[in-house]
Amino acid sequence: MLRVKKLDVFIVKQFGLLFLGTFFICQFVLMMQFLWRYVDELIGKGLSLEVLAQFFWYMGLMLVPQAFPLAILLSSLIAYGNLGESSELTAIKAAGISLLQSMRSLIVIVCLLACCSFYFQNVIGPEANKSFSQLLLSMKQKSPELEIPEGIFYDGIPNCNIYVQKKAVGTGMLYGVMIYRMNGSYEDAAIILADSGRLQSTEEKKHLLLTLYSGEWFENMRSQDLAGSASVPYRRETFSTKQIVLDFDGGFNMADVAGISADARSKSMGKIFHDLDSIREYNDSVARSFLADSRRTTFRLPQLSKEDSLKAVAVAKADTTDIDSIYMRLSPEAKQRAMKAALNNVQMYASEMNMKGDYMKGLNRNVRTHQIEAIGKVTLSLSCIIFFFIGAPLGAIIRKGGLGVPVIVSVLVFIVYFIFENSGMKMARDGVWTVWFGKLISTAVLTPLAVFFTYKANNDSVVFNMDLYSSIISSMLGLRRKRHVYRKEVIITDPDYASDAASLGTVSAEIDGYSKRHSLLRLPNPLKVFFREGDDRDIRRISEDLEKVIEDLSNTRDKVILTELNKYPYMATHAHTRPFRARWLNAAVGIVIPLGVFFYFRMVRFRLRLLRDLKAIRMANDAIVARIGEMEAEKGKKVKE
After folding, report:
1. Residue-wise pLDDT tens digits, 221-231
2. In angstroms, rounded to a whole number, what is the distance separating the alpha carbons of residues 77 and 394?
3. Contact (CB, 8 A) for 335 and 324
């Protein structure tokens, strides 16, 4: 029986409050990013608050499914980051509750949110997208609000350019008016100059009444019918008062929704699958029609059977007519006409084929767009679950709450998701990739990451330990740290100098014997390196004995010995014999040739470095043994005295 525990309630409260806050933040960011695409359609149109409210409402409904994954990622990161930072997650694990057990209530909630996301995309989203597209189209078609500036030409009125030198804001008078008006074509342009004027809108807001004072009208008369009269190049009229009616639709009219409803984004999944059959059938019929027309117009040959085709080929081979000789007997004018006719036919057929090809590309693109939209409804819902299994384990691993590190990690994860999602969508839409591959590539990339982070967090594995990664990289590249031995403030037991000197002498003898038995300058056999077990026990024993002596001598007060101890290198005991300790890993690396070459030359480098290390150890041993001898001699003199 499923029981709701206090821990589940506690974690749900932590996650729920954060989810509400991050959801509105993500929704606001997405709406602002979306708004910048259509800011030109809003500014200067004189839209009412009701129209703007509808615009933002429909835009918000469209972006709700996209805000869900981001809010889940960020809220889960912060929630488990806060639990880890306050050591509450440690207490939960100490009580025997694993990370997955603590996440079970949130898993149910996230699955419900994924279902809500699908519901928004399948039911609310298409209607919101249809209404938004209709509203946006209506806003694009609406004339801009009349606001004539000073000192520049204003083209917001159809077929007119108006220049105003100065405006009186209180009275609405315009001074220094110049109008360039298009009555029909460029040959019918009229130029109107006036000292002053007034512009008013009619009651129905369909026209503008322009009253001008003390001006002149210049109009070209070339295109008008002046039959029976003298030829007049233009007309000039001087007036004291003149009224002109200009077309200007200042109202807001909703556009027709017929063309918008065919968009795949305005359809539910059931509607998409229903329309895909009709779209494919129409595309096939158009393709068959184009193919038949191409055969009929391009080749102009009847449909022949296989036997008739063979007979035609045989006749063509038997025909000895030389087309070139016939062409050469033509006159130059006839040759030119023949070439022009052939070129025109080829260009006409090529243009026709290009037009049909572009039309078929558009039809196939429509099919892919419907498929992309249908698959996208599922993948976007699944991304809610995937982002949760990325955010919650990462929060438990990082153990940093607040809006600092979680926001940075969320942005990085979302950038990866955005790049793969948009790249896959564009490739699938253009037909470069298959639709399934293009739409599932982001899911295929993030799902292994979610599994990896969940596994690591549930097992308390180290993922973001930079020291571990630094150690691995240093080991691969052969980098090592220097030895640092400092004088201790408090020394309880002095070193046994006689025993240490004897041990160093033994190490030096072993080094001499090792150098005689092994030739480190010789290249090793690749088969022995990668496919046979190998271990240098002599070097391991020498290293262990040397470290014991160094540990004992680190208690000395003598500065000379401390200086010589810092000259001892840290020896790698197996890197000069094989790349890895595991035999199967060595064999795998050896089979992969590029990796095998890298690790083979890495091993050669370690052999050369071991040769230098042995020489440095031999010199440091001699110096320390000599210094111990001097110390013993000084001690003997003091005893005699």
Report:
1. 654 444 444 45
2. 6
3. no
Strand, helix or coil for residue 166: strand
CA atoms within 13 Å, Cβ hemisphere of 528: 9
C-alpha dihedral sign at 579, 582, 584, 585: negative
DSSP secondary structure letter of residue 228: T
Environment class of residue 248 by beta-carbon count within 10 Å: exposed (0-12), middle (13-18) or buried (19+)?
buried
pLDDT in tens, 519-559: 888 887 777 777 766 667 888 888 888 989 899 888 888 88
How far is residue 263's CA from residue 257's CA, in Å, rounded to a whole number? 11
**What single-letter DSSP state applies at residue 498?**
H
Closest CA to 601 of 478, 491, 487, 451: 478
CA dihedral of 257, 258, 264, 267, whole degrees rounded to 10: 70
Residues in contact with 69: Cβ distance below 8 Å, sequence separation at least 6, in sequence order: 117, 380, 383, 384, 386, 387, 417
Question: Residue 107's CB: how many other CB atoms inside 10 A?
Answer: 14
CA-wise closest residue to 160 among 33, 73, 245? 245
- Which of 258, 268, 275 lies closest to 137, judged by CA? 258
CB 372 within 8 A of CB 425: yes
Instruction: Single out the residue of 317, 316, 287, 312 nearest to residue 302, CA to CA.
Output: 312
Backbone angles phi, psi at 40, to 5 degrees: -70, -25
User: Which are the contacts of 24, defined by CB distance < 8 A and separation ≥ 6?
Assistant: none
**Mapping DSSP to helix (H, G, I), strand (E, B) and coil, where does residue 236 land?**
strand
> Closest Cα to residue 59, out of 144, 142, 143, 136?
136
CA distance 242 to 517: 117
CA distance 370 to 377: 11
Q: Could you give the strand order of the β-sheet that contains 160-167, starting from the edge strand earlier in sequence?
A: 153-154, 160-167, 173-182, 189-201, 207-220, 234-247
Confirm whether pTM is higher than 0.70.
no
Residue with tokens 């017929």: 258
**In the predicted model, is pLDDT for residue 157 greater than 60?**
yes
Distance CA 404, CA 407 (A): 6
Kindly calculate the radius of gyration of the chain based on its CA atoms and give it in whole angstroms.
43
How far apart are the two ends of the chain, measured CA to CA in Å?
A: 91
Q: Which of these, 455, 459, 422, 457, lies nearest to 441 by C-alpha position?
A: 422
The candidate with the shortest Cα–Cα distance to 522, out of 614, 596, 604, is 604
Write out pLDDT tens, residues 559-595.
888 888 898 988 887 777 777 777 777 788 778 777 7
Residues in the chain: 641
Structure-derived torsion over alpha carbons of residues 534, 540, 541, 543, reported in degrees to the nearest 10: 160
Q: What are phi and psi of 248, to 5 degrees?
A: -160, 110
